[in-house]
Structures are given as structure tokens and as C-alpha cells.
Amino acid sequence: MADPKGFLTTPREEWPRRPVVERVRDWNEVYVPGALLPIVGAQADRCMDCGVPFCHEACPLGNLIPEWNDLVSREDWRAAAERLHATNNFPEFTGRLCPAPCEAGCVLAINQPAVTIKNVECAIADRAWEEGFAPPAPPDRLSGRTVAVVGSGPTGLAAAQQLTRAGHTVAVYERDDRIGGLMRYGIPEFKMEKRHLERRVEQMRAEGTKFRTSTTVGRDVDATELRARYDAVVIATGATAWRELPVPGRELGGVHQAMEYLPLANRVCEGDLPSSPLSAAGRHVVIVGGGDTGADCLGTAVREGAASVTQLDIYGRPGSERDEDAEPWPTYPKLYRLSAAHEEARDLRTAPAADADARLFAASTLRFTGDGEGRVRALHLAEVDSERRPVPGTERTLPADLVLLALGFSGPDPGDGLAARLGLSLEPRGTIARGPDFATNVPGVFAAGDAARGQSLIVWAIAEGRAVAAAVDRFLIDAPTRLPAPIGPYDRPMTA
């Protein structure tokens, strides 16, 4: 604990964002470059080095948060990077994309603003790359065992890196043309520039991990042949089966899933396309769904030059303070939060009819109506009660040339034939069934991440990757593993 009075004398200060009018003209990250390091040392001083640090329990990775806060306060960046990487393969990803349940579990957050754990984490990760504290770590010798990892999202990459460093020969199979999964084509550039992802992939290549892109296991590569070729297989395909909205007019042109829309915008940033075929430019956009994916669509549509953008959330507007009865500390509370995209929509007044920023809360979509050519032109909605039932007499109509459905994901895509071809058992909700050691019903085949857990956070995805790697290593060497297993397959976030 570098400063015993830091939490009393220093107010919380977050990484400042660039002005809205500046950042919506480009796709760069929203934060002011270089503005984090001058403030992060004092912010780390606010950590109380609690005797029982609940931030550890709130983070599924078990990040050693008080330790690296103290090291940052003392400007020992090398040691801080070592402690951070001891539990997290990709802290520059979580430092930008994770909603920080660790901050909700911060003891200081009982009655004060929490320590800016996420910002400190990001500062350490970025400094580690700048100073060369994150070199490739190839194994000293190879085990002679081989592993196929199917899927290159955070779970697949974490599992692959852990297993490669343990000495196994690992190949990652990805159906897209680039590595990264939803981090590549689902997360917009303004939330995480893809150079961070490229840097980690190159590190993994240098360590010995092999990558096979544009390869769909179950279609381009026979799943049973893959199992026969490798000593173990890890299924980490994510939860890509999107949820539908079965209302009248869904068949109209211009109504698309969020994950049909976002990848095209990312491909424009990659230089693959001059413009998106689903660009929001000049169109009235309505986003159905109040989560992070909907916010990603919002920020993307604003940058593409939409005429208006409105986001519908079926839940009521949450409060700005924790409800201690319903969501007591240290659980992660549902609060009214202003993301960068919502801040932009608020300042630019993209949705004059919205309750706040671009959002309409407690709103349910009833139907879509179109023009004579079969294209959507309006969305009809109604307010809902506490049971999410439409309230009579509250129907409204919004102009809509482009509707984006951001309703979440139910499980892995059944269309690739992977589960059926391997004979994997599924849970009733469609996720892959597994035992306490992450093993499926097929010997040598393991399942991890959203494909088995269901839709979750990036920090849980990385924790799953590290944990399944430990299970696979134990299976391959038939002995206790030295790899850490931060979670079990049945662990869940803290709830009241």
C-alpha cells in the first residue's frame, strides 16, 4: 500500500475521452492518446490493499489487483506487468473491453467511487508492450502432443497460448479470414484498435502456435478427421447463434442482425471494402436491444452518418446508485451507464424522441411496416410494464430505414455441423454439454467459452481458456498440470 491515505485524498479520475465532435469523424479509439499514464499512478494509490480483496473474487481471472496497483504506484512497471500477465493472457483486451466487475467488487466502492482498476490494467499492458516486457515465451522443449483449437476468440487464443507455452503443438482453426473471432469483426475499431490484436497474434506465432484461417471445421475440414489427427480438440467457437425477433414485418428488407451489420463496418476499417453495403449513412436507424452490442451498433451508425439513431431497451431505466437490497455489494449492479457511444448520441442529439442519450427504455417492438417495395419504413413500439408486457394506449411509431437486432446469442451455431458430426451432447439451451473437467462426452474433446457457458464477458472467456488449457494439459500428460485453472465450468458471477 504505497499511500495509506490515497483513497481519502485522491478523487477517482478516469481516462479522458476525446471530444465527441472529433472522435465521431474517425474510427480511432475514443480515449485521449497518452492521457492515461500521467494520472494512473495517483489512481493506483487509491487502492487500500484490503485484507480480503473482493476484487479478486469479482474477477474470474483472479487478477492480483492490489499487488499491481502498488507496483504501479511505485512505478515498477516491469514487476507490475509480470504480476498482471501471471493471471491474464490479454490485459490490453480486458483493459479496453471488460465492463470491470472487479470495480463493482472493490471494497472502496461500498461508499465511494471504486479504484479505476480497468484503467490501471490497461496502462500496465500498454507500458509492457512499449518497454518490451511482453516478449514471446516459447517452450523450452516440446511434448510431442498435438492440440486443435477450434475458434480464435479470447477463449481459443488463451487456451492456445497456454498449451503452446506448456510445450504442446497447437493449431488454431478459424472460419473467418483473420484471427480474433468477435474481437476482430464484432468489436468496433473505436473500442479497440485491431493493432492490439495483431500484436498478440504475432507474439503467439513467435511462440509456436499455428493458425489456420478461412477454415470451417465441420464443413471445410471434417470434424471426425480433425479429432483423429490431434491428441486433443478444444471447441471454443463462441455463442454465434443470434436470437430472433418474431414480430410481423421481420421479413422486410432493411431489418438485419447486429452481427450482419458490425462485421461489414469492421471490414471497411480493415481496408477490405470501400464502404459497407449496410451503411447507416443518411438513414433512420433503430437498434432493438439495450446491451453492449446495441451500443456498438450505435457508435458505428453515428460514425457512418446516420440521419437518426434510436436504441430500444425493453428494461426500465436503471438508477444511478446501487440498489443495496436487490444488488448488494460486491455484486455487479445494473446502473445507468453512459458509454462512449451513448455520450456521442446524447451530444449530437441523434434521437430527439429518446428518454436519455439515444435510448428508449421500457420499450417493446410490436411490428415493422414497410413501403410498397418490401423495405422497412417504420417500427411500431409500446411501453411495457414491470413484467415486460405492452401497456395499452402507449403505442408509438419511429421512422426506420435500417433496423438492427441486438438481442444476444443463444449458443454455438448449429449450422456448421461441428457438434452433430462429432456427436457432442448439447444442453437444452443449445450449448455444448461438458463435465467438471471441461470434457465433452467424446473422449479427447473439450468445450470452453461461450460455446459451453453461454453468452458471457470477455474476462470470463479468457478465464475459460486458461482453465480448459489446464484440463487438456492434465489429459495429455496424464499427470498433475502446472497450468493455472482460475475457474471451473460451473462457476458463475457473484449474484445476490
UniProtKB/TrEMBL annotation:
* Keywords on record: Amino-acid biosynthesis, Glutamate biosynthesis, Oxidoreductase
Note whether Cell membrane occurs among the keywords: no
From the UniProt record, give the pathway where this protein acts.
Amino-acid biosynthesis
Q: Which domain of life is it from?
A: Bacteria
UniProt cross-references to Pfam families, sorted A to Z: Fer4_20 (PF14691), Pyr_redox_2 (PF07992)
Q: Which residues form the 4Fe-4S ferredoxin-type domain?
A: 38-69
- InterPro entries documented for this protein: 4Fe4S_Fe-S-bd, DPD_II, FAD/NAD-bd_sf, FAD/NAD-binding_dom, Glut_synth_ssu1, Glutamate_Synthase, Helical_ferredxn
Protein name from the UniProt record: Glutamate synthase subunit beta
